[in-house]
Specification:
This protein is α/β, with parallel strands linked by helices and 576 residues long. Strand 9 and strand 10 form a beta hairpin. The protein has 24 helices and 17 strands. Helix 20 packs parallel to helix 21. The two termini are 42 Å apart.
Length: 576
């Protein structure tokens, strides 16, 4: 996806949020929300499209198209700037508090003059919030807890945003004649869910030329340091990028040195010392003679230390060094292992593309099957009725009859109600090929009630996968209060898979959750939750998260052939 598309998607989301705060018509708010999904999920760089072409994108009308062209040509959007001027920044910041929506934020601002989180905390402490009509003591306490949880959220840059910028920089440097090799490094190469600064490594016989090219890129807003081995810049998007340049002959050693976590690197260097060796970014050396033993590739460095090459995502000191020394390092899932996608939406619910478009892109990406899982009827805004589901099923049957190399499973994303109840009756559920069940509301329940709610869905014989199991949205919403160990224990007992939601704002389950899931033999579905064709490319984020959780191909449902997926889906029906 082009970077301008992502930027515009964020801007239109912001417009929707600001309009909602002002009490604008709900259909106007939804128009901008839909435009955000449409442009963010479009496969073509909208910067290259004229207004007429833009209006051919579903969800983009003339007014939205004009704003896109305005931003592309000027870098600004007058209507957005006007909206920003009308809403205090602190009021918008309050929307980050879990459970605090635009209506309540507006009431707090209008009735109490609350314009920041600090003022909201003061209003809570003095019990002025509970004095407002329609709020009360329970709302006040929920807001207090929400602020505490929000303050624990990681404020680093989300993986998807950082990787997009890193790939933008790398694409601009790739054609330079002085660049012999180039790679991500640091936490971004390890595919951590959030990163601090973006680290890049280049091999070059002419480092000064590479550094000059780097600081002169048109996305550079500020140069923090300009050296021959390391240069740091801040991009126009506010992200810091650190570039290191080394000689081609030591590229492998440098890549190993600048990739692992601090703890991983310390452990590897200590291992080297015990063997009379010294490890640095310039290679692995004999301490006494200074003779360099390995430097060209990472594999050479690890091999000289008696280890197999360790995948970057595993370099976190979670046992990978010991496993590599013992020859028991797991063979983790890889992008090429993924055969299908089991959580995909269309425009029949809240997606922006047709069934045909989603299938076409999935086939083009080399998948063999997908499950269409539009939202079920209990989702108030976008749920699909029984009649709508049956119409879609007929469409899928007809489509499958025309394809021999690809199959579409008819599924649904069921809503897990406050007491664990699901959409539709048991007989109707039997007609689906594959069913995902997820929590979509009432997320502030107690730990005990939320745990019981999800376990009830896990135990339902029709449910195959629990979608985005903890509900977290990175940087915006923390996970539910749940007993995850009990949930995973139930999933292992019932044979219900747990999802790794590959959307980069979710990555749910997390890597540490997956390591726990493995202990209970829980099956995993790595799915995109795609709402647009471009979202199908997000599978790589879920795969990387599964790698970090040491998940092998054998545990992943959609790394198996279609017949095995069908057998998995059917096994639970009436047999638990």
């Amino acid at each position: 996806m082009a970077f301008i598309n992502e930027e515009l998607a964020r801007l239109f989301d912001e417009m929707a949020e600001l309009l909602e705060l002002q009490g604008a018509d709900v259909f106007r708010v939804r128009a901008y929300q839909h435009a955000s999904r449409a442009i963010g999920g479009h496969l073509v760089d909208v910067a290259e499209m004229d207004e007429r072409s833009l209006t051919e994108i579903p969800g983009v009308g003339k007014a939205i198209a004009a704003k896109v062209r305005e931003f592309v040509s000027s870098g600004r959007m007058a209507d957005l700037e006007d909206l920003r001027s009308q809403v205090p920044d602190g009021v918008r910041e309050m929307l980050r508090v879990p459970g605090l929506g635009p209506k309540t934020a507006t009431v707090l601002h209008r009735e109490l003059g609350v314009c920041s989180l600090a003022e909201l905390l003061d209003a809570i402490a003095s019990h002025r919030v509970s004095s407002l009509k329609g709020l009360g003591a329970k709302t006040e306490e929920n807001l207090r807890k929400g602020i505490q949880r929000m303050q624990q959220l990681d404020r680093r840059t989300p993986l998807g945003v950082a990787l997009s910028m890193a790939e933008e920089v790398m694409a601009r440097l790739a054609g330079h004649p002085a660049v012999a090799d180039m790679a991500l490094a640091g936490s971004l190469r390890r595919m951590c869910e959030t990163v601090g600064d973006i680290d890049l490594l280049v091999a070059s016989p002419a480092p000064a030329e590479v550094m000059d090219a780097f600081v002169n890129l048109d996305i550079v807003a500020d140069v923090l340091a300009h050296g021959e081995t390391k240069t740091s810049i801040v991009t126009v998007k506010g992200l810091q990028v650190d570039l290191r340049v080394v000689e081609p002959g030591v590229y492998g050693a440098a890549l190993q040195y600048f990739t692992g976590s601090k703890e991983h690197n310390v452990k590897v260097r200590e291992l080297a010392v015990k063997r009379g060796l010294k490890l640095s970014e310039y290679g692995l050396f004999e301490t006494q003679t200074g003779r360099r033993l390995a430097a060209g590739t990472e594999a050479e460095v690890y091999a000289r230390l008696g280890m197999a090459w360790i995948p970057p995502a595993l370099r976190e000191d979670t046992g990978e060094v010991e496993a590599a020394l013992g020859g028991i390092l797991p063979e983790v899932i890889d992008d090429d292992d993924m055969l299908g996608d089991l959580h995909v939406h269309t425009d029949r619910s809240d997606g922006i593309a047709s069934l045909g478009d989603m299938v076409a892109v999935a086939r083009a990406r080399g998948l063999g099957y997908i499950a269409i899982t539009d939202h079920a009827e209990n989702l108030r805004m976008n749920g699909v009725s029984r009649e709508g589901m049956l119409a879609q099923r007929r469409e899928i049957v007809a489509m499958n009859s025309r394809m021999s190399d690809f199959k579409v499973l008819h599924g649904a994303e069921l809503n897990i109600g406050p007491d664990g109840e699901l959409d539709y009756d048991a007989e109707f559920l039997e007609g689906f090929d594959f069913l995902v069940a997820s929590v979509h509301g009432q997320m502030n329940q107690s730990r005990e009630r939320m745990t019981a709610r999800i376990i009830r869905a896990i135990e339902h014989p029709a449910v195959n996968v629990i979608g985005h199991p903890t509900g977290r949205v990175i940087g915006r919403r923390p996970a539910y209060e749940v007993d995850l160990e009990e949930i995973l224990r139930a999933a292992g007992r019932c044979g219900t898979a747990m999802e790794v939601n590959s959307y980069p704002d979710r990555l749910d389950l997390r890597d540490d959750h997956l390591r726990l899931a493995r202990q209970f033999g829980v099956r995993i579905a790595i799915s995109t939750d795609a709402h647009a064709p471009a979202h199908l490319a997000n599978m790589r984020f879920g795969v990387a998260t599964a790698q970090r959780g040491w998940v092998g191909r054998e545990l992943v449902v959609n790394a198996q052939p279609l017949e095995d997926v069908k057998a998995f889906a059917a096994k639970g029906r009436g047999n638990r």
